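Minimal example, chain plus adenosine-5'-triphosphate.
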Amino acid sequence: MTHEIAVIPGDGIGQEVTPAAVEVLEALDVDFDFVEGDAGDAVKAETGEALPQATRKMAADADATLFGAAGETAADVILPLREVVGSFANVRPAVSYPGLDAVQPDTDIVFVRENTEGVYSGIEDEITEGVRTLTRVVTEEASRDIAEFGFDYAKQNGFDDVTIAHKANVMRETDGLFLETAEAVAEERGADYDTALMDALAMHLVMHPEDYGVVICPNLAGDMLSDLAAGLVGGLGLLPSANVGEENALFEPVHGSAPDIAGQGVANPSAMILSAAMLLDHLGYDDEGDRVRAAVEGVLDEGPRTPDLGGDASTDEVTSAVLDRL
Ligand code: ATP
Ligand code: MG
């Protein structure tokens, strides 16, 4: 069976790390048909559109999408793309690797982030000069979807600890509904869980990440807490993510286009290659996904390493080392 994969490198280091992930997928004994699409600042400058219709269609028709990064136009690209693939869950594992000098070496947390609403509703207004508002949307349906996904994910992947992050003491209506709905899902399943106020959780994550497994989060909280966790395990160059829908899915690193290092050939390809490993899991190639993770883990442990991890290797050198291990 051939799987059609839409590949959208985008801007900045997306152009450098996406080919690395494609090379890794090509090295496996799985039939892929790659189709490449444009998105981001560069194509907007050329055509006026950050996400051309052709790219949209490519992602909609493919079995899965690999996306690199977009710069200034990120919101115009990734929010619609997540919609195109019908994604409601953003899965962001933050794992510490042996051999890396991480702030917290015992981190193994998966953030399951609601991906369709909250403050990302896009409903912003200027009600009068100098006063602007944002409407935070929380629905029972999306809250139920993300909670069910989170508890299923924990069960399928052997996590004992599930934490529901919220700020229902302040956002009583919106996060009240999120919390109440997620707790109802847990009760229905007879699943154990904890709840945590997201601010206190940020502190506890820094001090005791080992206490957490799956963390189910509203949209913005999931974005911020997963970046925080990236810092605990060695930086943004390491964190992959999956945007999962009912039928389709899109895989992307947590990092952005990193304009400060773009074009130098030194971006860490690990986050992108680990995103490809999540794509393999998603398509049912769990063994291949594990092989890719083991290869990346081996390289992180023994080198070569890119400058963000204290080394002086290039993106290509790290990618070759991963391919050698495969
Ligand atoms: P964007 O607006 O596209 O998100 P940004 O300026 O926020 O751009 P990020 O990509 O989010 O940049 O990166 C934040 C920091 O982390 C930058 O200093 C960047 O160099 C570093 N970084 C991110 N990804 C990587 C990577 N894959 N390898 C090395 N460093 C990285
Ligand atoms: Mg960024």
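The mean pLDDT is 96. The longest strand covers residues 87-95.
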